[in-house]
Amino acid sequence: MLLSKANLKRILNLFGLLLLSLSFCGYSACHVARNDSKSVTTITLPQQILVNSTSYPSGTVLYDSGYITGSPSSLTIADCSSKYYVGFFYENDPQYSPNETGQSIFPTNISGLGVRVYAKNQAGPFDDEQLISNRWESNRSGLISDHTLNGSAYRLQLVTIGGKISSGILELPTALARVEYRENDAHSANGDDASELLVSPTVVNVRALGCSADVSSLTFPLGNFISADFNATGKAGSAQNNITLSCEPGTNVSFSVVAPAVTEGDNANNTAIALSSSGSETVATGVGVQLNLNGDIYDSGTNGLPLNTKIDLCQSSRTTYAEGHTSFKNYTTTPDGCQASTVLHFSANYIKTLPTITAGTANAAGTLNFIYN
Q1: Which whole-number Å values give the CA distances from 140 to 89, 136, 150, 312, in the listed order?
Q2: What is the pLDDT of residues 63-96, one digit of tens each?
Q3: 211-372 adopts what CATH topology?
Q4: What is the residue extent of each domain of the chain?
């Protein structure tokens, strides 16, 4: 068969179109397989968590959701090329990116508190635990294949990032993190999201428990007395002073009176504080100092406060959950425990410890140790 120049040109053009068509059909790009959809995990956060207002070492885990499997539990990422990338990103990037503190813990709007997220079962070379780190990971296998996510899951932790944690409302976006397959290391490249993490609720009441006192020391000027001034109960003199505690409502508070106890005679059930420089010629004998606390939350009456003994002032009912966080068991707007302002009414008096009292100075000192949690 003889071909004219016109026929030969048409055949060559058709061959060129065929090559172009074949080249186009051979292109690969990661995508969620037909009839599949990305896996979505929803982690239910506690409505409130309790923390201490003291400084925590960086990296302390205060809440851990554990791994929560998404839905659907299985899907396939198909037709990836041999040089695809997998991105482990927070949804609100770059909100978290510039503030990274290390170890993929990202700050939140609560000072001292960060968030850390892990993903697992993300298919192929990424089935092991992976940190959401706002980074791209390149395909390690070099193989072109489909990847099936079985049991795609996420884990969320609230982690300390150093310093004190303040009370406040922790705010997180509804969509928090995602895993995406792309042909290049860019969100705009061809590809698809494989999985996503949602949180609900998006706000958590963070209660940083603790108190501060309005004074750093108390003095009780008892004045001068003679042995005849001691009454039938063996006591003389009285002086009062107060401490006001400003607390995160619901804080547990305990305290102790740390002081040397009288060792000779009657120490009144371990409530008699020994005089300073006891045993010196100028110091009185046969007496000690007794400290009392009277009020609604604790009342020692006239018995005195036991020395070097933990005394509970305010206690609240709490529940510790398997996820690691703690919350008030039956929280209301007026929880138990110490309130925002708690006034402690202290008083002091002399107490007779020996049948005979000798004259001299009668000063005593001790330390009030408060524990907040």
Answers
A1: 19, 12, 19, 58
A2: 999 999 999 999 999 999 888 999 999 987 545 4
A3: Immunoglobulin-like (2.60.40)
A4: 28-209, 211-372
